[in-house]
Design brief:
One of its GO terms (biological process) is proteolysis. Its cofactor is Zn(2+). It comes from Pseudoalteromonas amylolytica. InterPro entries: AstE_AspA_cat, Peptidase_M14. This protein has 8 helices and 10 strands. It is of the alpha/beta class. It has one domain: Aminopeptidase, CATH 3.40.630.10. Helix 3 packs across helix 8 and helix 7 packs across helix 8. The relative contact order is 0.16.
């Protein structure tokens, strides 16, 4: 379905020289400072802003920020929202920021809230799934992680892991998954890619160890008010995975090293938006992300979770 990837040899994993060749082709295409950090700074009067780490790559240094509700009380359950684990997934970053700006404050009565809006700023700037070491941060949330983006986020979250109730991780599935990222992955690992499905709309990935189907349904129902939910393909699957219910599939987030598996929260979900759909706009993708977070929190409040 795609042309052979221009780096490496078929059926042979990349060596260090191939990774360096890949890195040399990456270019800065947008500004983390202008697009993201400036927005975070505007929240300083209403939220606590914490610089939780620094990514230092050749010629590029990125401060990492967490946003916390100011009325932090240990007896409240904690909510974690993450965006930009894959930096190229734009609405994940800007959905997290929009949630803080427009919607988070009323929930402070019920929850402590932490938002990590852009875990992979180099990926944001270069519109990449990987970090400069050709590592996928969203397969690297485990002990002694090879991805600094994942390790720094885990270290910060672990220090606030008391009473963690819910984690919503904001992502996208894009046409570039097929034109670039799936072929690059296959080339890097010396394998053949067999999944080319890109769902046309929004869907959720629950955790197989704690699927919480009623919770996932509530989130999907709220998102459906603002954007299209992806239908299953002719095999009843999304991205090659059997459907659990309308708009929901499950992964073992912990075993796969996914961001959604990094806490012991009983309620977790990963959102997936399709920004390249005919009916999609940057704004309704962001609106879908915000609706997912609000749907999750409204469900938890309604059910006294």
């Amino acid at each position: 379905m795609s042309k052979p990837y221009p780096i490496g040899e078929a059926n042979k994993p990349w060596q260090a020289s191939h990774k360096q060749q890949w890195l040399s082709q990456q270019q800065i295409k947008r500004s983390y400072t202008n697009d993201v950090v400036t927005q975070i700074q505007q929240f300083a009067d209403s939220f606590t802003i914490i610089e939780y780490g620094m990514l230092e790559y050749a010629q590029h240094t990125y401060p990492l920020f967490a946003i916390k509700t100011k009325d932090w009380q240990d007896h409240k359950p904690t909510i974690l929202v993450t965006g930009g684990v894959h930096g190229y997934e734009t609405s994940g970053v800007h959905g997290a920021l929009a949630f803080v700006r427009d919607s988070a404050k009323p929930y402070e009565t019920h929850f402590n809230i932490i938002v990590l809006p852009c875990i992979s700023p180099w990926g944001y700037e270069t519109i990449n799934r990987w970090n400069p070491d050709a590592i996928d941060p969203n397969r690297s949330f485990y002990k002694n992680s090879p991805a600094n983006e994942s390790r720094l986020a885990m270290d910060f979250v672990q220090a606030h892991n008391h009473n963690m109730l819910c984690h919503v991780d904001l992502h996208e599935t894009t046409d570039t998954d097929n034109s670039e990222f799936r072929p690059a992955l296959a080339a890097r690992d010396g394998i053949e890619n067999h999944n080319w499905n890109i769902p046309d709309g929004f869907y959720l990935v629950g955790h197989t160890q704690k699927p919480q189907p009623d919770f996932q349904k509530a989130v999907i129902t709220n998102v459906a008010k603002v954007t299209q939910i992806a239908p299953a393909d002719e095999a009843g699957k999304l991205i090659g995975v059997p459907l659990e219910q309308f708009g929901v599939i499950n992964y073992d987030g912990t075993a796969l090293g996914l961001c959604m598996g990094m806490t012991d929260a009983p309620y977790v979900t990963t959102t997936e938006v399709y920004p390249d759909g005919a009916a999609a706009t940057p704004q309704n993708c962001i609106d879908g992300q915000v609706a997912a977070v609000k749907g999750a929190l409204d469900y938890l409040i309604e059910h006294n979770a």
